[in-house]
Amino acid sequence: MERKTKLNAEEGKQDLVITREFDLPLELLFKAYEEPEIVEQWMGTKVLKLENKKHGGWQFETSDAQGNVVFRANGVIHEFVPNQKITRTFEMENSPFEAQIEFFEFEKITEETSRLIMHIVYRSVSLRDQMMKMGFAPGLNMAHNRLQNVVNKLK
Amino acid sequence: MNLRRDVFQAIADPTRRAILILVATQSMTAGAIAANFDTARPTVSKHLQILTECELLKQEQNGREVHYHLNAKKMKEVADFIEPFRQMWEERFNKLETIMKNYKKK
């Protein structure tokens, strides 16, 4: 199967680039990043704040089935150019990890297809590698919670 | 947390990466490994110690000599950490695509 999402993380470097081509017009792709209700759906997180403008702030929060907050992140938007570019910082709350800067570039390929280039810069190589290892941890957490639910029902 | 025991910290160093490549083909003694570098022997020993501590290298007693060989299982772990991260984004983006396709139909 063709890999639609490409990840380029060179060894020993403190940044990474994720590229994805979408079967969506550019405007719809951008909307998925702009509208809080849509972000909530595909990111699987609650959007507490999303101010799409220069110097605007954002904050996301994810809870488990019991309502306990398992993840909260926030940052500042540095650039917001509709259908083109978003530059923002990202910081995981209550974690030892320092803030990272993220550049999202949105491109039109055809009328019906578009591309997203996500460039993330971390403070150090080891921080990047740790974040990549951690990156899928919330997902694992949720799988664990689902398992917990199933087990609870069996009791 | 002892950073030195972190696998990803270990492979961030170019000398340690070179050692791993060397040992990948055959197990070697510390002396034989050090002979491939201009670096002082104690420095190479330190690198070997770090690589052993984080389990990328394994020591094997061979008569009076200690041979170092690659721990393939641990190396696989290193190679694999990028893939789960890529998959996580792929899943998110697939979801985004599905949601927006439905949105378009509205």
From TrEMBL, chain A:
Residue stretches making up the Activator of Hsp90 ATPase homologue 1/2-like C-terminal domain: 23-151
Domain of life: Bacteria
Family membership: Belongs to the AHA1 family.
Name assigned to this protein: Uncharacterized conserved protein YndB, AHSA1/START domain
Automatic annotation (TrEMBL), chain B:
Record Gene3D superfamilies: Winged helix-like DNA-binding domain superfamily/Winged helix DNA-binding domain
Domain HTH arsR-type: 1-90
InterPro entries documented for this protein: ArsR-like_HTH, HTH_ArsR_DNA-bd_dom, WH-like_DNA-bd_sf, WH_DNA-bd_sf
SMART domains: HTH_ARSR
SUPFAM superfamilies to which the protein is assigned, alphabetical: Winged helix' DNA-binding domain (SSF46785)
Molecular function terms from GO: DNA-binding transcription factor activity
Lineage top rank: taxon: Bacteria
PROSITE patterns to which the protein is assigned, alphabetical: HTH_ARSR_2
Protein name: Transcriptional regulator, ArsR family
Species name: Pedobacter caeni
